[in-house]
């Protein structure tokens, strides 16, 4: 049976619980079509590179799918009709990767580092070896 990786973006104003319901709905479509869903990764609410249908953020979700093409096509058809799904993309792959995706590995690395943008640490003396600044323009004239 063909193997697919499928990513979809849900609107920013739907809750995480509603995203889980969407996943369960599409999982049912795949299973009714004779397929199965392997790994499901919820990447969370992330910023978009550009606005899509007046949304600046979206809930990203990755699904590993083993199913016939007809089941995947039906799931994509239903996603196209849904107002909660902004975009989706399906890739046919040779083998499914059961390890965490690059997005999840990045999140784990960020969590271990303990950092958000506000945690920059003490930068100390920024002047260092720069020396004094020259005179300002008004003083040069």
TrEMBL record:
InterPro entries linked: Ribosomal_bS6, Ribosomal_bS6_sf, Ribosomal_S6_plastid/chlpt, Transl_elong_EF1B/ribsomal_bS6
GO cellular component, one term: ribosome
Region (Disordered): 97-141
UniProt cross-references to Pfam families, sorted A to Z: Ribosomal_S6 (PF01250)
Segments of skewed composition (Basic and acidic residues): 105-141
Stated role: Binds together with bS18 to 16S ribosomal RNA.
Record's protein name: Small ribosomal subunit protein bS6
